[in-house]
Specification:
alpha/beta; five-stranded parallel sheet; 45% helix; 14% strand
Amino acid sequence: MIKSLYFMFFVFACLLGLMGCTSKAKDPFKNLTVDEFDRYIQNEEVQRVDVRTVAEYSKGHIPNSLNINVMDDLFAAEADELLDKERPVAVYCRSGKRSREAARILTKKGFKVVNLDKGFEHWKEFGKEVCY
């Protein structure tokens, strides 16, 4: 009886541990695939924001995107100045990591944000339009 209780406790503890390892904090914004992002930004109301450095942006970017470097200390202030909170925002970076951070910042500030999952490099791999 005691051995079966220990076994049941062990199984229960393992299941709880597995659930804890697999649960990932949900982003407060949507991460879109390349095709979903492409469809989303066709809406002229959507503000396209490249959050990479000026040097990266100058080597190619999604057409009609605004460059606001998320690594700059003034990112939040520039976003407030340049973006309209009444219009949706679509952010992207090289691989999707910096834009996730930008999306978190913008979401906290009250913007409705979507993020290009896997970033601009993935966008180019899919043969989507790029401006130089």
